[in-house]
Write a structure and sequence with these properties.
Layout lengths: L1 H13 L8 H10 L5 H7 L5 H10 L18 H10 L4 E2 L3 E6 L2 H13 L5 E5 L2 E7 L1 H9 L2 H10 L1 H15 L1 E3 L4 E7 L2 H15 L4 E5 L11 E6 L2 H10 L9 H8 L1 E2 L6 E2 L10 H23 L3 H4 L9 H11 L1
Antiparallel strand pairs: 1-2, 2-4, 3-4, 5-6, 6-8, 7-8, 9-10
Helix pairs in contact: 5-6, 5-9, 8-9, 8-10, 9-10
Length: about 325
């Protein structure tokens, strides 16, 4: 075991990180990660996210040896809010446990980590194309069954972090991002009270306006209940939602949004996210190009007034690129 740890430490020194861990941070991680709770570790390592802390601990061979007793009383935390969102979405429960069957392995891993952190002992298995995650706890199931819209409304309205994790759980379960169609579906459910509550939460904490659609006819379904769906259509609001809420599933995440919508500025070459399909320049270059156009317009209008455009029309655009020379000269000829 000692040789394995030394091997990891040697490899760690050879890797080039953008923000490498200091010796003091590694010392704090070794002392507190196995036995301390998440909140205390994050307070000691404020520059690190919880995901990066877990990755670093796995790299140097540390394991969590604590079973958090905080949730034996079962109250709201970030993890239980996320699990509650999944429970109201894709997960199912029995008298003894909670189960989730999904196609995305990253979603199954996120659900597995959340169940582990609250003190349960989840298991993960693969069945053909599906990943199954399940855990048994009668007390936790009893706590989940006690939660409804009325009981969670006051808690989530007054706590932004709990609300964001709750929305993330529902979005991972029932939402979807469709970049080709230019829309984002937050939730699709037959429970009108739940969907309208999510709409209120998004407006309250994220200041994003979503639109509610009702579909009465459902194809390939025996249920006659209407289905209620929340959509976001504005590109800027989709970016804001994904930046704050994000997702544990890549195809629904902010990284996928950036990869699909990013463009290369034709002036400076920087990768940016355009606000419209016709935008060719980044924000800084847009200001510079607009000032160049204003100067060019003033110069041309001055030469038009004094009759100098016909004499010097071929030479006045030499300071521009060949493409802009041609377009500018043809535009003002």
């Amino acid at each position: 075991m000692a040789r394995i740890l030394m091997f990891h430490m040697n490899n760690l020194g050879n890797n080039q990180f953008v923000n490498p861990w200091s010796e003091e941070e590694i010392r704090i991680l070794k002392e507190h990660y196995p036995f301390d709770i998440k909140e205390n570790i994050q307070n000691l390592l404020k520059k690190r996210t919880w995901k990066s802390i877990i990755q670093k601990a796995n790299t140097i061979g540390l394991k969590r040896k604590i079973r958090v007793k905080l949730l034996l009383d079962f109250k709201f935390t970030e993890e239980t809010s996320y699990i509650l969102g999944i429970y109201l979405g894709d997960a199912s429960i029995t008298k003894y446990g909670i189960f989730l069957y999904v196609k995305d392995e990253d979603f199954a891993d996120a659900f597995f980590q959340s169940l582990s952190f609250i003190g349960l002992r989840p298991r993960k298995k693969k069945y053909e194309e599906l990943y199954a995650v399940y855990a048994y706890s009668i007390k936790f199931i009893q706590w989940l069954e006690q939660q409804d819209i009325k009981t969670i409304r006051d808690v989530l309205n007054n706590n932004k972090e709990f609300a964001i994790n709750f929305i993330r759980g529902l979005y991972d379960s029932e939402g979807g991002y469709y970049p080709e169609q230019g829309k984002l579906m937050i939730i699709s459910n037959i429970n009108f009270e739940l969907v309208s509550f999510i709409k209120e939460l998004i407006m309250r904490h994220l200041k994003i306006e979503s639109k509610l659609f009702i579909k009465t006819k459902r194809e390939n379904s025996f249920s006659k209940s209407p289905i209620y769906t929340l959509f976001i259509f504005k590109k800027s609001e989709i970016e804001k939602f994904l930046k704050i809420v994000d997702s544990n599933i890549y195809r629904k995440s902010y990284k996928h949004f950036i990869q699909f919508n990013s463009k290369k500025c034709i002036r400076c070459g920087i990768i940016f996210i355009p606000k419209s399909r016709k935008q060719l320049y980044c924000d800084k270059c847009r200001i510079i190009v607009s000032k160049e156009k204003q100067r060019l317009y003033k110069r041309i209008s001055y030469q038009k007034r004094h009759g100098l455009l016909e004499k010097h029309g071929d030479t006045m655009f030499k300071h521009l690129s060949p493409y802009r020379q041609q377009t500018s000269y043809s535009l003002w000829q």
